[in-house]
Design brief:
Radius of gyration: 21 Å
Strand content: 25-35%
Strand order of the largest sheet: 4-6-7-8-9-10
Order of helices and strands: HHEHEEHEHEEHEEEEEEHEHEEEHEEEH
Number of helices: 10
């Protein structure tokens, strides 16, 4: 009997059958997070292929979609859009019940579907059966992080990112580098395919900050850490990876930082994946006041951020100057 027939002739069903039907209808859809991690990796890789294809073909079709609070242009390219279409539709086609937030807005439908493939390193490190109701899950995707640098062909900074938050807490982070085709992932409480570096320096630290949205971050950082070395770079995903032990690449030399500091407004699709990846490795990403960031609701984080791994994060926060987001 079809579902529609059961509903149409519900009055003729006996009580036990109606109760069973009601129970089935009332069950909440649950999502296995190992599968969702595999889907997230596949989505980031697919998006990365589009990003690289557009850049290699020099068909960016660049335009401005507005300005940041600091007056910097927010750029949109065909790479952003094509990557969004693959990433967003792959996740929504696989999990229509899940809330997905993307940096880009586009209603184009793509029938792309999950291959059902789970990478070997995920199978080896992540157990099946960690399930949560779909309604408790929020996915944040950044189809092309570091668009400004992308238009300048500084593609070493470019990443595609997926983050899975459960009840607002970052649980899964995926950061893919289209240039090297390396994909970093972390699952809080389960494992990661990366590690922290063997040592970090706080006397003074090397601090990585935004290249195109820096605000007064250099002055802010020097007030906190004195004669700290400042590394300017594009892309929030790249900055998080600079804190970790990365595989060697023939394409470019990766920056190595001890801390990541940001003092202007930033969106959650920029930082959620990095927050989850660091947390899976025992690190932290908080506001400049040391507060956890809620990855549900509004996409805007106004409290700045400081990210670290392998050091005393609380001690780092205590060194930071007083922060007023309205002044930056």
């Amino acid at each position: 009997m079809s579902f529609q027939t059961e509903v149409t002739f519900g009055n003729s069903l006996n009580l036990k059958t109606r109760m069973m039907l009601t129970t089935r209808l009332g069950q909440k859809k649950k999502v296995d997070l190992r599968d969702l991690l595999a889907v997230s990796v596949e989505a980031a890789v697919l998006g990365g292929k589009e990003v690289k294809r557009v850049r290699d073909g020099n068909i960016l079709e660049e335009k401005s979609k507005g300005e940041t609070k600091e007056g910097a242009k927010e750029l949109l390219t065909l790479g952003d859009l094509q990557s969004h279409r693959k990433m967003f539709n792959l996740i929504k086609n696989t999990y229509p019940e899940i809330t997905v937030h993307s940096e880009e807005r586009d209603n184009s439908v793509d029938s792309v579907s999950w291959s059902q493939d789970i990478p070997a390193d995920i199978l080896n490190k992540i157990k099946k059966g960690v399930e949560f109701p779909a309604e408790s899950i929020t996915v944040w995707i950044d189809p092309l992080d570091a668009t400004q640098e992308y238009t300048e062909n500084l593609v070493q900074y470019v990443t595609t990112m997926v983050c899975v938050a459960v009840d607002g807490k970052p649980v899964i982070g995926v950061i893919h580098q289209p240039l090297t085709e390396f994909t970093a992932w972390g699952f809080v409480g389960q494992g990661s395919n990366l590690h922290p570096r063997s040592s970090y320096s706080m006397n003074p630290p090397k601090v990585i900050v935004s290249r195109s949205h820096s605000g007064d971050v250099k002055l802010f950082t020097q007030k906190a850490f004195g004669n700290a070395s400042i590394i300017t770079a594009g892309g929030a995903g790249y900055k998080v990876l600079s804190l970790l032990e990365m595989p060697p690449s023939d394409a470019y030399l990766m920056d190595q930082a001890d801390l990541y500091v940001h003092i202007t407004f930033i969106k959650k699709w920029d930082i959620c994946a990095g927050a989850a990846l660091l947390k899976s490795l025992g690190g932290q990403m908080t506001t400049l006041k040391g507060e956890d960031i809620d990855y549900s609701g509004s996409p805007l984080n106004t409290g700045g951020l400081v990210a670290s791994v392998g050091v005393d994060h609380k001690a780092v926060v205590e060194k930071l100057p007083e922060f007023d987001p309205e002044k930056h």
